[in-house]
Amino acid sequence: MALVSETRGAGTVANDPLVSYTIQTTPDPLKASPENPDAPEEIGELLIVASRRDRTPADVKWIKVQVLAGAMSPDLATDLAKITAKISLSGWTVALNSSTKEFVFTPTAEFATIGPDTGFTIQLAQIPINRKVGTSPIKVTENSRAGSAAFLSRDTAFDVGKFPADFYLRNFICEPLVIDNGGEVKLTWERSANAAYELLYGDVHIPDVTNDTTRPITNIKSDTTFYLRGTAGDPSNPVIRILSTQVTVRRPDLDTGNLTVNGATALNGPVTMMQETQWYTAEAGKANRWEAVGDGYVEVLFPFYDNYSATITIHRPKDDFGWNSRNTIKEFHETFRGMVRDGSRISVETDAIKNYCQVSWVPFGAGSLKPLP
Hints:
The chain is 0% helix and 52% strand. By secondary structure, it is an all-beta fold. 26% of the residues are buried. The chain has three domains: 4-163, ntegrin, alpha v. Chain A, domain 3 (Immunoglobulin-like, Sandwich), CATH 2.60.40.1510; 169-250, Immunoglobulin-like; 278-372, Jelly Rolls (Sandwich), CATH 2.60.120.380. The chain is built from no helices and 29 strands. Strands 1, 3, 5, 7, 8, 9, 11 and 12 form an eight-stranded mixed beta sheet that branches. It starts with a strand and ends with a strand.
């Protein structure tokens, strides 16, 4: 993963940039220049890749790229005048505004139209990298509009790290890449000794793997992405590099919110329903009929120690060949249990004079028993 993270302010959607930007660095990551002022400076490069992702074109008056320069940790460069700035769009020019520390790119006309098929790059080369390890903000500002709207200035900000010269974090590998459910993998990586390292995956956070270059992970039940994070520099302005790798699990466990299945579903194994039991009453001498809303599991039982019986009939939906099931329970210790499909009709008739039966319903997901006349 390139050591560049995008940050956004608390602006409104109306002020969001109309052009999308990403930044790449060379080298990756950038190296801070030696602290010795007599030593040669490290040289780096920023490549900003831009495009219009909406089908509606955008008009752009200018694009500004702000790069901080100086001797402090948040500064990226030591001298902006040494930077070579270019844009790939034809007819555009660039000028350095030293007071605002911005490279200003402008088209020859009043504005240029950037369509969905227009991709371009902005290159800042020969950057003399600052001598302090730390994270530097890079701000890209465009003055743009869509359609006949007013031109607005819109910002995109990035954080770019400058690492110690001998820092490295690389070759983060997961083996094997595909495993069975419940299997294990071996993670390996290469790293320098001048940073702190931590490993993250799923809900797991291992805060200190600083002395490790390998780690076995067992009992993996779903597709998993592993993140290895290295942190170096002053805690007040650290630099962070993150690498990732992943494993694919055959027949993984799934934990999801809503699931829609278009077609037949086969459940090969036990089914656990995370729904509370719903209770209904089948009164004596009355019609006790319900329609199942959703699939579920029904029980009919006697709550009293009296001698009476109840007849339970399950009328299946018409698409289930119209098959009906009739069962009778005659004593208080007997219970009727059955699986019921969506749309089935349940009737309970009891010969008791005053007592009643209890009907419990556990839906397979969202559902209930709808009373029928």
